Amino acid sequence: MGAMRVLVACEKSGIIRQAFEKHGHDAWSCDLQNSDILGKHYKGDVRDILYCNSWDLIIAHPVCTRLCNSSVLRLYHNSKKEFGLNPDKILEMIEAANFFKLFLNHHCERIAIENPIMHCYAKRIIGVEQTQIIQPFQFGHPESKATCLWLKGLPLLRHTEVLRLKPGERWQNQSPSGNNKLGGKAAELRAKTYQGIANAMAEQWGN
């Protein structure tokens, strides 16, 4: 496969974009903020460029705040579900799900969409189960973070370096309770793609 035009949507870090650039592809990242890594980056709404270019591959990371299973209780008026679902939060969730579907329904022949495990409400709107669930520890990183991939026209991402825990051990990013040490306040850090996963995407989907 020759050089491709690659769009990495909703990526501030520039990690995946840079991985594809190293393989000779014309890769662009897009986010509402500046990229952490200098390079071809469109600062603005991805919808400005999503349809006006002939992308050969789209890798998207739509915002998961209202879609992920770990935040489902935020859709309610309180954490005990005593007053039912909050209409304002539900509307935000529907908007987020429809934004996700912009990528899912795009005409590009090769698409990968990344998100955490979703709650049932988001799944009903999106209507398609993930193709694959991967973990950083399958790509050489001693951390745990279940990541779902919705794939179109792409093979499953092959594990490149599987790490295993010894009895009684935890992954480096896990607290004694098993939760992520970074917590919700470090959402930007948690959202960054692990370099091993980015490299695998570029090597396997870009060659």
For the structure shown, list the relevant keywords:
207 residues; alpha/beta; seven-stranded mixed beta sheet
Task: Explain this structure.
By secondary structure, the chain is an alpha/beta fold. Helices cover 23% and strands 15% of the residues. It has helices at residues 15-21, 87-104, 120-126, 187-191, 195-205; strands spanning 5-9, 26-31, 41-43, 57-60, 111-115, 132-134, 147-152. It has a seven-stranded mixed sheet, with helices on both faces. The N and C termini lie close together (5 Å). The mean pLDDT is 91.
Chain-wise SSE layout:
Elements: E1 5-9, H1 15-21, E2 26-31, E3 41-43, E4 57-60, H2 87-104, E5 111-115, H3 120-126, E6 132-134, E7 147-152, H4 187-191, H5 195-205
Parallel strand pairs: 1-2, 1-4, 2-3, 4-5
Antiparallel strand pairs: 5-7, 6-7
Helix pairs in contact: 1-5, 2-3
Number of strands: 7
The number of helices is 5
As residue ranges, the low-confidence spans are: none
Helix content: 10-25%
Compact overview of the structure:
The protein contains five helices and seven strands. By secondary structure, the chain is of the alpha/beta class. Helix 1 packs parallel to helix 5 and helix 2 packs across helix 3.
